[in-house]
Amino acid sequence: MSGNAWWMMGLAALIGMMLPLQGLVNARLGTQIGGPIVAAFVSFLIGTLALGIYLVIARQRIGIGDAATMPMWIWAGGLLGAVYVAIVTLLMPRLGPATVMCLVIFGQVVAALLLDKFGVLQSAPRTVDAVRIAGALLVLAGVILVAAPWRSAPTQAAVLQKR
Protein backbone atom coordinates (compact mmCIF):
# COMPACT_ATOMS: atom_id res chain seq x y z
CA MET A 1 0.00 0.00 0.00
CA SER A 2 1.39 3.39 -0.94
CA GLY A 3 2.17 6.12 1.56
CA ASN A 4 -0.61 8.20 0.04
CA ALA A 5 -3.15 5.46 0.80
CA TRP A 6 -2.01 5.31 4.44
CA TRP A 7 -2.38 9.08 4.74
CA MET A 8 -5.91 8.94 3.31
CA MET A 9 -6.86 6.06 5.60
CA GLY A 10 -5.58 8.06 8.57
CA LEU A 11 -7.60 11.06 7.47
CA ALA A 12 -10.72 8.87 7.17
CA ALA A 13 -10.13 7.56 10.70
CA LEU A 14 -9.66 11.10 12.00
CA ILE A 15 -12.92 12.22 10.41
CA GLY A 16 -14.59 9.14 11.88
CA MET A 17 -13.31 10.17 15.30
CA MET A 18 -15.11 13.49 14.90
CA LEU A 19 -18.56 11.93 14.35
CA PRO A 20 -19.27 10.90 17.96
CA LEU A 21 -18.24 14.36 19.13
CA GLN A 22 -20.53 15.95 16.54
CA GLY A 23 -23.38 13.75 17.77
CA LEU A 24 -22.80 14.71 21.40
CA VAL A 25 -22.50 18.42 20.56
CA ASN A 26 -25.71 18.30 18.53
CA ALA A 27 -27.49 16.35 21.28
CA ARG A 28 -26.49 18.96 23.85
CA LEU A 29 -27.54 21.72 21.46
CA GLY A 30 -30.89 19.97 21.06
CA THR A 31 -31.50 20.07 24.80
CA GLN A 32 -30.89 23.81 24.75
CA ILE A 33 -32.87 24.91 21.70
CA GLY A 34 -35.83 22.62 21.19
CA GLY A 35 -34.89 19.06 20.28
CA PRO A 36 -32.88 16.97 17.84
CA ILE A 37 -34.54 18.25 14.65
CA VAL A 38 -33.86 21.88 15.56
CA ALA A 39 -30.29 20.95 16.47
CA ALA A 40 -29.83 19.13 13.14
CA PHE A 41 -31.20 22.19 11.32
CA VAL A 42 -28.80 24.51 13.14
CA SER A 43 -25.92 22.09 12.48
CA PHE A 44 -26.66 22.09 8.75
CA LEU A 45 -27.14 25.86 8.72
CA ILE A 46 -23.72 26.43 10.35
CA GLY A 47 -22.14 23.85 8.02
CA THR A 48 -23.72 25.50 4.99
CA LEU A 49 -22.41 28.89 6.05
CA ALA A 50 -18.92 27.46 6.63
CA LEU A 51 -18.89 25.80 3.22
CA GLY A 52 -20.24 28.97 1.60
CA ILE A 53 -17.42 31.00 3.14
CA TYR A 54 -14.92 28.43 1.86
CA LEU A 55 -16.39 28.60 -1.66
CA VAL A 56 -16.13 32.39 -1.66
CA ILE A 57 -12.55 32.38 -0.36
CA ALA A 58 -11.49 29.63 -2.79
CA ARG A 59 -13.38 31.32 -5.64
CA GLN A 60 -14.95 27.97 -6.41
CA ARG A 61 -17.39 27.96 -9.28
CA ILE A 62 -20.69 26.23 -8.51
CA GLY A 63 -21.75 24.22 -11.55
CA ILE A 64 -25.46 23.61 -11.16
CA GLY A 65 -26.42 25.15 -14.50
CA ASP A 66 -27.71 21.81 -15.79
CA ALA A 67 -29.70 21.09 -12.62
CA ALA A 68 -32.95 20.70 -14.54
CA THR A 69 -31.51 17.82 -16.57
CA MET A 70 -30.17 15.92 -13.56
CA PRO A 71 -32.17 13.03 -12.12
CA MET A 72 -34.11 13.87 -8.94
CA TRP A 73 -32.25 11.29 -6.85
CA ILE A 74 -28.99 13.20 -7.36
CA TRP A 75 -30.14 15.68 -4.69
CA ALA A 76 -30.78 12.97 -2.07
CA GLY A 77 -27.38 13.35 -0.37
CA GLY A 78 -28.48 16.39 1.61
CA LEU A 79 -31.68 14.67 2.69
CA LEU A 80 -29.80 11.52 3.71
CA GLY A 81 -27.31 13.64 5.66
CA ALA A 82 -30.11 15.50 7.44
CA VAL A 83 -31.83 12.26 8.42
CA TYR A 84 -28.51 10.84 9.66
CA VAL A 85 -27.66 13.90 11.76
CA ALA A 86 -31.17 14.17 13.22
CA ILE A 87 -31.33 10.49 14.20
CA VAL A 88 -27.80 10.41 15.64
CA THR A 89 -28.65 13.57 17.59
CA LEU A 90 -31.76 11.85 18.95
CA LEU A 91 -30.05 8.55 19.83
CA MET A 92 -26.71 9.80 21.20
CA PRO A 93 -27.92 10.75 24.71
CA ARG A 94 -30.15 7.67 24.91
CA LEU A 95 -27.73 4.95 23.81
CA GLY A 96 -24.35 6.63 24.31
CA PRO A 97 -21.74 7.56 21.72
CA ALA A 98 -19.95 4.21 21.56
CA THR A 99 -23.12 2.19 20.98
CA VAL A 100 -24.55 4.62 18.42
CA MET A 101 -21.32 4.87 16.45
CA CYS A 102 -20.77 1.10 16.46
CA LEU A 103 -24.30 0.53 15.18
CA VAL A 104 -23.84 3.25 12.54
CA ILE A 105 -20.57 1.66 11.41
CA PHE A 106 -22.16 -1.78 11.22
CA GLY A 107 -25.00 -0.34 9.15
CA GLN A 108 -22.47 1.34 6.89
CA VAL A 109 -20.55 -1.90 6.37
CA VAL A 110 -23.70 -3.86 5.51
CA ALA A 111 -24.95 -1.15 3.15
CA ALA A 112 -21.52 -0.78 1.52
CA LEU A 113 -21.30 -4.52 0.86
CA LEU A 114 -24.74 -4.48 -0.75
CA LEU A 115 -23.86 -1.42 -2.83
CA ASP A 116 -20.62 -3.12 -3.91
CA LYS A 117 -22.38 -6.38 -4.79
CA PHE A 118 -24.99 -4.71 -6.97
CA GLY A 119 -22.73 -2.01 -8.39
CA VAL A 120 -25.01 0.80 -7.30
CA LEU A 121 -23.90 4.19 -8.68
CA GLN A 122 -20.59 2.82 -9.95
CA SER A 123 -19.44 1.22 -13.14
CA ALA A 124 -18.93 -2.37 -12.01
CA PRO A 125 -20.04 -4.52 -9.09
CA ARG A 126 -17.40 -5.72 -6.65
CA THR A 127 -17.22 -9.20 -5.23
CA VAL A 128 -18.69 -9.79 -1.81
CA ASP A 129 -16.96 -12.98 -0.78
CA ALA A 130 -16.71 -14.98 2.43
CA VAL A 131 -13.76 -12.92 3.69
CA ARG A 132 -15.69 -9.64 3.38
CA ILE A 133 -18.77 -11.21 4.99
CA ALA A 134 -16.58 -12.49 7.81
CA GLY A 135 -15.26 -8.95 8.24
CA ALA A 136 -18.83 -7.64 8.54
CA LEU A 137 -19.60 -10.35 11.11
CA LEU A 138 -16.52 -9.33 13.09
CA VAL A 139 -17.81 -5.74 13.04
CA LEU A 140 -21.14 -7.07 14.34
CA ALA A 141 -19.30 -8.94 17.11
CA GLY A 142 -17.56 -5.68 18.01
CA VAL A 143 -20.91 -3.87 18.09
CA ILE A 144 -22.31 -6.46 20.46
CA LEU A 145 -19.26 -6.28 22.74
CA VAL A 146 -19.23 -2.47 22.79
CA ALA A 147 -23.01 -2.05 23.14
CA ALA A 148 -23.13 -4.88 25.73
CA PRO A 149 -26.94 -5.00 25.83
CA TRP A 150 -26.81 -7.44 28.76
CA ARG A 151 -25.33 -4.72 30.97
CA SER A 152 -27.58 -2.14 32.54
CA ALA A 153 -26.91 1.46 31.57
CA PRO A 154 -25.80 3.76 34.38
CA THR A 155 -28.59 5.87 35.77
CA GLN A 156 -28.37 9.66 35.71
CA ALA A 157 -28.09 9.62 39.52
CA ALA A 158 -25.11 7.24 39.37
CA VAL A 159 -23.40 9.42 36.81
CA LEU A 160 -23.94 12.52 38.96
CA GLN A 161 -22.66 10.72 42.09
CA LYS A 162 -19.34 9.95 40.37
CA ARG A 163 -18.78 13.65 39.74
UniProtKB/TrEMBL annotation:
The chain crosses the membrane at residues 37-58, 70-92, 98-118, 130-150. InterPro entries: YdcZ (IPR006750). The keyword Transit peptide does not apply. The keyword Translocase does not apply. Keywords: Membrane, Transmembrane, Transmembrane helix. One of its GO terms (cellular component) is plasma membrane. This is DMT family transporter.
